[in-house]
C-alpha cells in the first residue's frame, strides 16, 4: 500500500480540528477573567469559585447524579438480561418484537420518547394513582428505559464475538444454567456491562429533553438548569462547569485506555 | 440425555438447548426486559395515539376523555376527534415544519458524510497505536455532554466571537456576520454533534475492506480518484447507509440544536412539538404532531432494522 495521500491527511485533519476546536475554546474561556465571554480579560479561576457557590447548579448536579446512578444500575441489569436473552436463547416467541423494542429507542427522537412517557405517567396516575405526580421516580423510569437499549446493544455485541467454548465446557461438566451464567458468562461479559453502565450513566446525566417532559416542579436536573441559563446567552459559570465535566471524562477515558493496555501487556507476558 | 459426541458435533445447538432446559426460569428471564419495554416503550405510543384523537380541554389533564359514560346508553359514548390531524394537514405551518426538518436533516446528513468519510478512512488505514488514538479522539466527544458541545458553538459564532474575528483578520469579510441564529448554524450544530455516529459505522466497514483490492485497481492503471469512486466507495456502502440513518433519524426530531443555534423562524418539527406542548399546552395537538413524525420515520427505522439483521 502506498503512503497515505496528502489530501486524505489534510481533510481528515481538518475534521479532527473541527471536532476539538469548540471544546478547546470552551476550556480557554472558562479561565477568562472577563464577564464578557469573548473578550479576553486575563487568566482567572473566579468562575469556578462562583460555580461552586451557585446553589441552584449544585443542587441540580446532585439530583442528576442520583438519577444517573440509579438509572444506569437498573439499565445495566435489564439491558444485560435483554442482550443475553437475544443472543443466547435461540428462538422464542416475541423475539423479533423484543429486538425491535431494544434497538428503536437508540434512534427515536427524544421529543417523542419524552412526550409518550409523560402521557403514560399521567394516564397511569389517573387509573392507578401511581406514580403520584412527576419527579425523581418518573425520570428514573424514563432514563432506565432509553439507557437499557444502549446496554443491551453493548452486551449483545460482546456476546456475539465471545468464544463460547468456556460455556460449552462448563455445560459438559454439568453446570446448571443459573450456575453457568453467574460463574462463567457474567465474568466474561463484565467489562461490556461496565462499559454499558458508564454509557448509561453519561447519557442519563446529559439528557435534557426527556427529563424536561417527565420531571415535576422542584426536580430540575443539571441539563435543565444549564439549558435555562444558556438559552439567554453565554454564561461564564457554565464554561467552568463544562470544563470540569470534560476534564472528568478525559481522565476516565485515559485511565480506561491505560488499564486496558496494562492488562493486554500482562496477558502477553503470561503467554 | 445428550452424549458427549453429539455436543462436539453441534456445540452451539447444545449450548442453546441447555439454556432452554429450565422452562420456567427461561420464560421469567425473557419476560423481565420484555414487560419493562412493553410498559415503558410500546404502550406509551398507544397512549400518544389515543390522546391525539382527543380534544384539548381546560382540565387536569388538559384533554377530553375519549370514552364518556353520559347515561344515554349502557356502553357510553366514544368520541373520536380527527380534528388535530385535519388541522395539521390544512395548516401550511405544520407541513412546512415537517418538510423543513426533513430538508435540514438530509442536507446535514450529507455534509456529515463528506466530513466523516476521510476521517474514517484515515483511521482505517492507520497502524495500530495511531488507530487506537484516533478512534479514542472520535469516541471522546461522544462521552462528553451533548448539550455543552452545542453550547460551545454559541460562544464561537457570536457576532464578536472568534469565528467572526478570524474571518475579519483574514480579510474575508469587513463586517461581522450574523452566524448564530441562522439555519447555517443549525446545519453546523447537527454535523458537529452527530459526526461520531457517522464515523464509527464507516470505520467498521472500511476496516474490514481488503486494501489489496485498491492496489490491484491501481496496478491495473486506475488513477487514485478512479479507484476511490470505483472500488472504495462501493465497498463502503453498508457503512454509509448505517451512518446516514444514525444521523438522519434523530436529526429530524432534533430540539436542542435549533433551540440554541437556530433563528426564531428556523422551523424544525421537534421544536414545534415542544412549543405546542410546553407553551400552548395543547397535548392532543402535540400528540398528533408526534404520531405524524413517527409515521415519517417508521420507514427509515424499519430499513435500519432490516439492515442490522443482515449484518448479524
Q: Care to describe what's here?
A:
The complex is a heterodimer of chains A (271) and B (312). Chain A folds into 2 domains: 69 residues; 160 residues, MetI-like (MetI-like fold), CATH 1.10.3720. Helices cover 79% and strands 0% of the residues of chain A. Chain A is built from 11 helices and no strands. The longest helix of chain A is centred in the C-terminal third of the chain and has 35 residues. The model of chain A has no long low-confidence stretch (mean pLDDT 86). Chain B has 312 residues and is mainly alpha-helical. Chain B has 2 domains: 75 residues, no CATH class; 228 residues, MetI-like fold. Chain B has a two-stranded antiparallel sheet with strand order 1-2. Classes of the chains: A mainly alpha (271), B mainly alpha (312). The interface between A and B is large, with 99 and 101 residues.
Summed up, the helix count of chain A is 11
CATH-wise, what's the superfamily of the largest domain in chain B? MetI-like
What's the CATH H-level superfamily name of the largest domain in chain A?
MetI-like
Please outline the major beta sheet of chain A.
Answer: none
Label the structural class of chain A. Answer: mainly alpha
What number of structural domains do the residues of chain A give?
2
Q: Would you count the extended β strands of chain B for me? A: 2
Name of the CATH architecture of the largest domain in chain B = Orthogonal Bundle
Q: Spans of chain B of 5+ residues with little confidence (pLDDT < 50)?
A: 1-11
The span between the termini of chain B is 31 Å
Quaternary assembly: heterodimer
Amino acid at each position: 500500500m502506498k503512503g497515505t495521500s496528502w489530501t486524505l491527511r489534510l481533510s481528515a485533519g481538518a475534521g479532527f480540528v473541527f471536532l476539538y476546536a469548540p471544546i478547546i475554546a470552551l476550556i480557554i474561556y472558562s479561565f477568562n477573567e472577563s464577564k464578557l465571554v469573548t473578550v479576553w480579560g486575563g487568566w482567572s479561576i473566579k468562575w469556578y469559585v462562583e460555580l461552586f457557590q451557585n446553589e441552584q447548579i449544585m443542587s441540580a448536579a446532585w439530583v442528576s447524579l442520583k438519577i444517573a446512578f440509579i438509572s444506569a444500575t437498573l439499565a445495566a441489569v435489564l439491558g444485560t438480561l435483554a442482550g443475553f436473552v437475544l443472543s443466547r436463547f435461540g428462538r422464542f416467541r416475541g423475539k423479533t418484537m423484543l429486538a425491535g423494542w431494544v434497538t428503536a429507542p437508540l434512534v427515536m427522537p427524544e421529543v417523542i420518547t419524552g412526550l409518550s412517557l409523560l402521557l403514560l405517567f399521567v394516564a397511569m396516575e389517573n387509573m392507578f394513582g401511581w406514580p403520584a405526580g412527576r419527579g425523581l421516580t418518573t425520570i428514573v423510569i424514563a432514563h432506565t428505559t432509553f439507557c437499557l437499549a444502549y446496554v443491551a446493544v453493548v452486551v449483545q455485541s460482546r456476546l456475539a464475538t465471545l468464544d463460547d467454548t468456556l460455556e460449552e465446557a462448563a455445560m459438559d461438566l454439568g453446570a446448571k444454567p443459573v450456575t453457568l451464567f453467574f460463574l462463567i458468562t457474567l465474568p466474561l461479559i463484565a467489562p461490556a456491562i461496565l462499559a454499558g453502565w458508564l454509557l448509561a450513566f453519561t447519557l442519563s446525566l446529559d439528557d435534557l429533553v426527556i427529563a424536561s417532559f417527565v420531571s415535576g416542579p422542584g426536580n430540575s436536573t443539571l441539563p435543565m438548569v444549564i439549558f435555562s441559563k444558556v438559552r439567554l446567552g453565554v454564561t461564564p459559570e457554565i464554561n467552568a462547569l463544562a470544563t470540569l465535566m470534560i476534564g472528568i471524562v478525559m481522565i476516565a477515558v485515559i485511565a480506561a485506555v491505560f488499564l486496558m493496555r496494562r492488562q493486554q501487556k500482562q496477558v502477553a507476558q503470561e503467554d | 440425555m445428550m452424549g458427549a459426541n453429539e455436543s462436539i458435533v453441534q456445540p452451539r445447538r447444545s449450548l442453546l438447548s441447555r439454556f432452554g432446559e429450565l422452562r420456567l426460569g427461561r420464560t421469567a428471564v425473557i419476560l423481565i426486559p420484555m414487560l419493562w419495554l412493553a410498559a415503558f416503550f410500546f404502550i406509551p405510543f398507544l397512549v400518544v395515539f389515543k390522546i391525539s384523537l382527543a380534544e384539548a380541554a381546560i382540565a387536569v389533564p388538559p384533554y377530553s376523555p375519549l370514552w364518556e359514560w353520559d347515561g344515554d346508553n349502557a356502553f357510553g359514548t366514544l368520541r373520536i376527534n380527527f380534528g388535530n390531524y385535519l388541522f395539521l394537514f390544512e395548516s401550511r405551518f405544520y407541513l412546512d415544519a415537517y418538510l423543513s426538518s426533513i430538508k435540514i436533516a438530509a442536507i446535514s446528513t450529507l455534509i456529515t458524510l463528506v466530513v466523516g468519510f476521510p476521517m474514517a478512512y484515515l483511521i482505517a488505514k492507520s497502524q495500530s497505536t495511531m488507530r487506537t488514538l484516533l478512534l479514542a479522539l472520535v469516541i471522546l466527544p461522544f462521552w462528553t455532554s451533548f448539550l455543552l458541545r452545542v453550547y460551545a458553538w454559541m460562544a464561537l459564532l457570536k457576532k464578536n466571537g472568534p469565528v467572526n474575528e478570524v474571518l475579519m483578520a483574514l480579510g474575508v469579510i469587513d463586517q461581522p456576520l450574523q452566524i448564530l441564529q441562522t439555519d447555517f448554524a443549525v446545519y453546523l450544530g447537527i454535523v458537529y454533534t452527530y459526526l461520531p455516529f457517522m464515523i464509527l459505522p464507516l470505520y467498521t466497514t472500511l476496516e474490514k475492506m481488503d486494501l489489496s483490492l485498491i492496489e490491484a485497481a491501481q496496478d491495473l492503471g486506475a488513477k487514485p480518484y478512479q479507484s476511490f469512486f470505483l472500488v472504495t466507495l462501493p465497498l463502503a456502502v453498508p457503512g454509509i447507509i448505517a451512518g446516514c440513518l444514525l444521523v438522519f433519524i434523530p436529526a429530524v426530531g432534533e430540539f436542542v440544536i435549533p433551540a440554541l443555534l437556530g433563528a426564531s423562524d428556523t422551523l424544525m418539527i421537534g421544536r414545534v412539538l415542544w412549543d405546542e406542548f410546553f407553551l400552548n399546552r395543547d397535548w392532543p395537538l402535540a400528540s398528533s404532531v408526534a404520531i405524524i413524525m413517527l409515521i415519517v420515520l417508521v420507514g427509515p427505522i424499519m430499513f435500519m432494522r432490516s439492515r442490522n439483521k443482515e449484518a448479524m
